[in-house]
Design brief:
homodimer, 421 residues, alpha/beta, six-stranded mixed sheet, four-stranded parallel sheet, 10 helices
């Protein structure tokens, strides 16, 4: 029996496991510290009350339950001993013949970890519901407060980082304030909410072509978002954001700027880049360790284009499948081929009916791009029951401008008393 | 302008507000410390991963946004000054001509508040997701642990209290372990999970007739629940429950026993019963204060049958509407009629296809009762978009035995790092 250990149930790990599921002679253990696989591309919808957490997440265990040769373990990996071929975990050592690391990434505050409390990022369901809590509470607080200056501060939302996540958050918050919330408040005019998208570089969406990025800027401005490029954030605190000499007072600051790879890449003798990503060989393995694959956001793979592949779901899915197939080929005595990423394009959505899309030389924008975005995302949503639910929820939201998940829930169950006074 | 202040957006408060909405000459303020109205009868479904929080909750603000004379405030009421006719809140004083209190109830641990940490109750969404986390984590921990004694302890679920909530929790957990989870685990046999329903009194469901309660016991036993009456809990700690001289080792203990009314009833000069409920006059007002109504779980109303009305949704809804109509009658110079509760029956569901139902002398059980239970609950679910979603989710769950919301999410967003290792 060949023992394959997969660390992480994200896009890479799940896709690797599915390739290995049912293969005779292979015994798979997938370990993750969370019980669920998360469809991260729709996480911004949870943060902006469009979808519920359970609609974009599925238990890893049930996703893989049909494969008798796969064991799913809820646990934390503390380190990997490449010489002894074991991973140390909170449930003891796990030995492996092959290791596939797909531990993902977390936020990087560029050395300012103290910013996290005032500017949460968007990588987990907990962070998404926390952002939802903050955004909705800002409107509630503004409604209660008499002071117009403080009202304006509370209704200012600063989003740091002009990549797809920042663009999607800014568009969704602007739209929510203009359409969904506008009719619900008495004292404040929710339409006056100010959404500022801050990008340190010369333009937003740097991975897209210039004309598509310009189109996104126009779409964002139509929704009322202020797009500010060449605006590097120098400090963040409770009352807002410092942009060099300028002070931007904001009630809610969200972080969509830097990421860094999971610290599990820091294995003695393994080379990582400044973002903590493991520098991998053409076959996604660690140099000198052909049985150890690193996939998804945790890997730095530059062999195809000279530039590192982006930390997106398609890259992780293909890398996971490639690693698993390579193991199968090894066992069958077939030679290894290098990893080749097939780029199927990229997209970003702006509000509820616009998107930009690039597939090779094809560039689309507006409603048609948004419809394609919708179809593709629903298609890839894991589990057909989720798909049905999400389509129902979206069809309804689209028709009514409602956002069905506008819940402010507490940070700790224990502190939230049940009676209503 | 007559100022009506409603404290609490539960069944009583929302129904009172809807009666007063649009009435000329009346200005309504509804204050609640939560932004959402909660459909509490389905909370056990969230706790057992059948439904998502947003499917049984709706923002109070949008439920009432069509009424221009209603202002919704997110805030906490600290006290009421009956002489000055003002409520003190965290956003200052709110004056009123009429007051409707509908602050609900919280759990009572009969003087053992230290039990709460080890035996959470089920009144809020946060508590429901915490219970869901504990139940699902118990299976995960049992899967990882080798020791069979500890495995058996982890797979033992003790539910304290044999009322409808306890019965519904016990049935849902037993069913989930036998059908949904059974196929997902490798090391443990999820079917061996032990669910024990503990009731101090001589029988469960004391508000139902004896034969209906006996039917529920049979249905619970068919699902594998051990029903133990005359078993008073004398202590609860991290490893289980003490029943007099007997020790029941249990990984998860849930509290569905006592409730007490919101402490806001403790207004100087207002008489309360031992559960903290305000003893109200035949017109639901506080003695000597005909402008102050107390409704729902917060009131003790004995004038109709000699016994207090139960703390159920129908009682709260009717009380809220009655209080609002009485205010309207006052303003029109009409005499007050006493509150009269129209009993439309009671029901409890056991697992996914059985229920018991009592409407006057009509007594139903089994699948037909469950279907009626389903129709009634979906009908009363607030907001038609929620209804559509819940029907979709239920239809799917019913056909597949899946439980779509099997998420273990963290207790604090800040402590849950995003990377998967």
């Amino acid at each position: 029996m060949t023992k394959v250990l997969i660390v992480g149930g994200g896009f890479a790990g799940i896709n690797a496991a599915k390739v290995l599921g049912g293969m005779s002679g292979i015994e798979v253990t997938l370990i993750d510290k969370r019980n669920h696989h998360l469809f991260q591309p729709l996480l911004y919808q949870v943060a902006t009350a469009g979808l519920s957490p359970a609609e974009i997440a599925a238990p890893i265990r049930s996703m893989l339950s049909r494969y008798a040769n796969i064991r799913v373990v809820l646990g934390t990996v503390q380190g990997v001993d490449l010489a002894r071929m074991v991973a140390t975990t909170d449930i003891g050592e796990l030995a492996f013949d092959y290791l596939i690391l797909g531990c993902g990434a977390t936020h990087s505050y560029f050395g300012h970890d103290q910013w996290e409390e005032d500017a949460p990022g968007l990588k987990t369901l907990e962070q998404a519901t926390e952002i939802r809590r903050r955004v909705l509470t800002a409107f509630e607080d503004a409604e209660r407060i008499g002071d117009p200056d403080e009202q304006q501060r509370l209704l200012t939302f600063a989003i740091v980082g002009g990549g797809p996540t920042g663009v999607e958050l800014a568009g969704a918050i602007a739209e929510m304030s203009r359409f969904t919330l506008a009719r619900d408040f008495r004292s404040i005019n929710a339409r006056l909410a100010r959404v500022v998208l801050l990008e340190a570089g010369p333009r937003i969406l740097p991975t897209f072509s210039e004309d598509q990025a310009a189109r996104a800027v126009k779409d964002l401005e139509t929704l009322g978002v202020e797009v500010r490029v060449r605006n590097a954030v120098t400090d963040i605190d409770r009352v807002g954001v410092q942009l060099g000499g300028e002070r931007l007072r904001a009630g809610t600051v969200l972080w969509a700027a830097g990421v860094k790879a999971s610290p599990l890449g820091a294995i003695p003798g393994v080379e990582v880049d400044p973002q903590g990503r493991v520098i991998v060989e053409p076959d996604l393995t660690v140099k000198g360790h052909p049985h150890v694959f690193v996939t998804g956001d945790q890997a730095r793979f530059t062999h195809q284009t000279g530039k590192p592949l982006p930390g997106t779901a398609p890259v992780a899915m293909q890398a996971g499948r490639y690693a698993a197939r390579t193991i199968v080929n090894d066992l069958r005595g077939r030679p290894r081929a290098p990893f080749h990423f097939v780029d199927k394009g990229q997209m970003a959505t702006i509000g509820r009916s616009r998107a930009i899309l690039e597939i090779g030389s094809l560039k689309l924008g507006g409603f048609l791009a948004w419809l394609l975005w919708l179809v593709i995302h629903i298609y890839y949503l894991t589990g057909s029951d989720k798909r049905l639910l999400v389509v129902t929820e979206w069809a309804w939201s689209y028709a009514t401008f409602a956002r069905g998940a506008r819940l402010i829930t507490g940070r700790d169950w224990h502190l939230t008393k049940s009676s209503r006074s």
